Amino acid sequence: MLLKFSRFQNFAHRAMQKIALLGFAVLSLGLVSELSFGQPIEQERKLARLEATYISHLSKYIQWDDNSSGSSLKIIIHGDDRVKFKDTLEYVMKISSPELALEILEFSNKQTDKALLEINKGFNCLILLQNSSMNAEQLSGMEKLGVVIVHGKKLFKSSNSQIAFEHAQNRVRLLIDRDSIGEKRNQISSKLADLKSAVKVINKSR
Amino acid sequence: MPLKLSIKVDRSVILVMCIKNLTIISQRIKRAIIGFWVILFFSFLSSFQALADELSSFEKRELSRLLEMDWNELANQPVSGVLGYDQEHWRNPASIAVIRPDDVFDGGHLQLVDSFRGVGGMYVTRGNAYDDFVTMRNFSGSATEKFLVLVDGREVLQPMGGTITWGTEEVPLALLDRAEIIRGPGASIWGTNAVSGVINVTTKPAESTQGNSIRLALESSGTFLGEFVHGGKIRDGEYYRIWVRDQEYAESDLLSGMPARDDGYGRKVGFRYDKELGMHLDLTVAGSYSTRRFEHVLDLSSRLLYPTDPNSTSPLPNSLIPPGFMGLPSVSAGEFPFIPISVATGLGLPAVPGIGDYPTWPNASGIVQPSGVPLIVNYEDLPQDAGHLRTRLSGVTGNDFEWSIDAFAEKYETNLGHVGHKWERDEYNLEFRGNRPLGERNHLAFGLGYRYMEFDVTETTTAPWRFPTINLQTGLPSSDIPILQYNGPNTFKRFSAFVQNTLEINEDLFISFGNKVEEGDLSGTTIQPGIRASYAATKNNLLWAAYSRAHRQASLVERYTEVSYARIWNPNPFHPLLNPTGQQWINQSFEADPTLDDEVMDAYEIGWRSSPSEKFLWELSLFYYDTKDAVFSGPPTYEAHDYTSVGGELTFNYIPNSFWKLQGSYSYSKGEKEGVRQTDFPESMASLASVIHAKDDLKLVQNLYFTGDRILPSSYNELSIGDYLRLDLGMIWQVGEGWRIGLFGQDLLDPDHPENMYTDLDVEPTRVKRRFLLTISTEF
């Protein structure tokens, strides 16, 4: 009995030593990681593909205002696009809605002034990339021109944007302002509120 | 005569040349793999250019796939792969095939395992109505599966026999999200037994199976399948489902024409409960209970033996003595020391005991085998009951740290009645896994695990064997010598930990490296490192390479059992001193080897994945496995040998137009045990699947499978199985909202053929017959 116990102790001791060693290595890497920010480019690309697909799905849940020419859609993207988001979105929209005349304009952070000029001319959808330099103040009033999509809960709550992307690792979820559902302009369908795993409706006015 | 001699010489020369050539090929593959790594290194130094601006065909394909998903699927879409965190299928530096529910339904497959037939490098065979065998890449063509299977993260490889009871792990098709088949080792993450591959089966969350769904299938053989799934919502963020699956199996015929008595049933119920505890905190509780009832046959034809005198002036006719019969050595060329007692009786040899003296011994079936030996079989019940419960708590923290804690409890109980081997296994597992991006270039995955197993083994001496026989261990006669005697420990523990980092050197070049350390009662301390790299040579071409070291534990049967496979009659008169065993039966057994080391495999792989257009993707994977101490079973012993396996797979996926999809594969592999070419695995295999959307509501499906010839190894009855071509044709109607009706013809080119059997104990496989299948599924 004692012998068995002793053998078990040795076994457990050796195992714990190794696990502790590994744990230390992992912890060290974790500490190093605290000093680093951002995410690998492949992760960003993956998210961009998911976001573009979400927008393609989303476009079918919005009754777009007939701003100028029949069934056309004007999308403005702002931010430094290092993951080919514009190409990706263009591709999925063409496949999913081939009948739609699509105009996608992209402006980097350096071209913010140009972007604002274009935005003020009107749009259906304004998408701010994660690294977009636009802030809540600049976005003020734009929700009256079209649907504004931002990244992250913080900007979503502080601005009048109707929709936001929220990431958790490589999973994407949409945040939608409850007030924007059923609005007269660019009407967002209330059906979106039922898609719980992908969409979270938030009451920003509270 | 001289002509014969010259032919022999020529053959031996050819053989030597072949061996030399094979050695050269193996060396070249090794060099190619080393060369690939060198290229990767220089690419790392020189290629910092970004990918071209345009989307690659890989990306376009992926986007097309994403567009077909609904919202729920989009929110849960990634593929696990080999890096320890979810990533897209095409970016994985490994040879991966993904089976989705439509692949199973469109193929007319009743079970998930049937759909693996179309995966390059996988060899799927049917043993009898309820038993399927799967092996990969010419590594163990026998019944032992030398790869790891996980169902929702739970290991389902049976440690007792080293096999997978596929039928016990089946789930209704409506639950299936995907099955990822990773060819090649994944031990640096999954650990021991992830040797020749890993199969990851994932079921859908309860939220994705809301409402009711039914799937019914009826085969012309009489086999029936019924599945029912009901899912409901308790409140926002809280869902459940319950399900039931029943498969009633029709009886097969053994190759000899005898009934296999493998008809029976496999019934299973299960549930799943998912609750969103927070924005990124989820709880899952799931479980299932499975019960199966069948009979299994044991061939007794050649288990009571009579010794012949090799020096006799009238030896037995050679036609009665199959080469390698019983695995026992010939005394000299053309002569054999033992013959079945039934043959000895027929020949009127002296002092043969009358079978009538043993009333429990089954009568001869009336069928005489090609070897001339009358067929004698015994059928016994084979019940299997299994249940498990699992809980997962998972979440993602604000700094993108994704984590999960899994706890599994499982009870498995079976009685292999034909060999009198009953055992229960209680198993508990606790696992923690985490991963997170580190800065802009690294993604770290790591985990810890603890496993505890407890066995309760009971042996029974089956009725035919209950007569006095000298036990050579004690020297005394006994009527209670079971066929399989387990002499091993009853409890096993294992600690494990892994860490793996994926480094994005630039946009084109990823390197992933990691290690798994395990400390367990069965294997001691093991270290299983792996390194993988992928390089986007152009936007439509991806090269990858991998080196892995993986361990496989010998099964408990291979290490701790004594197998009493036959009894030999001593015809000489009894004498207390000179012949104490005279006129008595003497037990013949072989013992497993408790000192068997883990099988240790060094695996080298390279791959080239190319998508010249978004409609066409092809992939070439090459591998070289070098395994030390690979265990091969069969009387008279379990032996460890060095084994090499070399080969590759070429797969393609082509969409010629909007209504036609084509998918195909060709694989070649060659295995050598101690330098001797093995024949138990078909070296060439191919498959071609075509799906034509003839109308919006009508699909025409064609599946063609080619399997090269092989020799089914057996110590009793080696069987040569010629190459065969299987053609399946099917039509699927989409009838109204949610209804699907499929009509399939399977194995249409061949009335019947044998595929596989348990090579240690079975003597003949069943006939796999041509059949027709009607399936209906609906959601409401």
In words, what does this structure look like?
The complex is a heterodimer of chains A (206) and B (780). Chain A is of the alpha/beta class. Chain A folds into two domains: 1-37; 41-202, Rossmann fold. Chain A contains six helices and nine strands, in the order ααββαβαβαβαββββ. Chain A has helices spanning 2-34, 41-58, 85-96, 112-120, 136-139, 153-158; strands at residues 62-63, 72-78, 101-107, 125-128, 147-151, 163-168, 171-177, 187-188, 199-202. Chain A has a seven-stranded mixed β-sheet, sandwiched between helices. In chain A, strands 1-8 form a two-stranded antiparallel ribbon. In chain A, α5 (136-139) links the parallel β4 and β5. In chain A, α2 packs parallel to α3 (85-96). The longest helix of chain A has 33 residues, at 2-34. In chain A, 40% of the residues are buried. With 780 residues, chain B is mostly beta strands. Helix content of chain B is 11%, strand content 50%. Chain B has two domains: 1-46; 47-300 and 378-779, TonB-dependent receptor, beta-barrel domain (Maltoporin, Chain A). Chain B contains eight helices and 41 strands. In chain B, the strands form six sheets. Chain B has a 22-stranded antiparallel barrel. In chain B, strands 13, 14, 19, 20, 21, 26 and 27 form a seven-stranded mixed β-sheet that branches. Chain B starts with a helix and ends with a strand.
CATH architecture of the largest domain in chain B: Beta Barrel
Topology pattern of chain A, helix = H, strand = E = HHEEHEHEHEHEEEE
How many β-strand stretches of chain B?
A: 41
Number of helices of chain B: 8
Q: Give the neighbour order of strands across the main sheet of chain A.
A: 3-2-4-5-6-7-9
CATH topology type of the largest domain in chain B: Maltoporin, Chain A
- Which radius of gyration of chain B do the C-alpha atoms yield? 28 Å
The major β-sheet of chain B equals: 22 strands, antiparallel, barrel
CATH topology title of the largest domain in chain A: Rossmann fold
CATH superfamily name of the largest domain in chain B? TonB-dependent receptor, beta-barrel domain
Anisotropy-based shape of chain B: globular
- Class of the largest domain in chain A, according to the CATH hierarchy? Alpha Beta
* Strands of chain A, count: 9
Domain count of chain A: the total is 2
Structural class of chain B: mainly beta
